């Protein structure tokens, strides 16, 4: 994608900011830093450092693999959401099939770290909302709050989940 290199550079700058002994906040103050969340990019770049991947080709192949695996986790979460909504495993599976067969979403699941990360965390936060609303307790509230915080950090439109949480409380 046209912005994949830019996203990786933003993740590397964020990694340097977090783990460097003399951090520079230039990436946080950049236009990219004011629009996009560093959390998912920091995760991807951290994997590069943990596994000591330096070859540019391998860096992007690993990023694509990890992004697709995260999307796969999101599809599993979408299946569980479908089970809760339809109460039928066939309809839940059909919903997942329609999600995966959407050409734009499937293609983006390999390289679009911003939007697919937001999609996955949004689906997981809706799951935790339903889990929390079934039987409210402090542990479920913690996990739902964590997922909401991550979702809102990645995309501000995920505030919708916070609003829905307030609705469920009422």
What does this structure look like?
This protein has 170 residues and is mostly helical. Helices cover 82% and strands 0% of the residues. It has helices at residues 4-19, 26-29, 31-35, 39-50, 56-86, 89-100, 103-111, 113-134, 138-154, 159-169. Helix 1 (4-19) crosses helix 4 (39-50) and helix 8 (113-134) packs parallel to helix 10 (159-169). The chain is globular, with a radius of gyration of 17 Å. The protein starts with a helix and ends with a helix. The mean pLDDT is 90.
Radius of gyration: 17 Å
Measured between the Cα atoms of the first and last residue, the distance is 43 Å
Unreliable residue stretches? none
How is the biggest beta sheet arranged? none
% residues in beta strands: under 5%
* Number of contiguous helices: 10
Amount of helix = over 70%
Structural class: mainly alpha
Strand and helix order: HHHHHHHHHH
Mean pLDDT: 90
- Extended strand count: 0
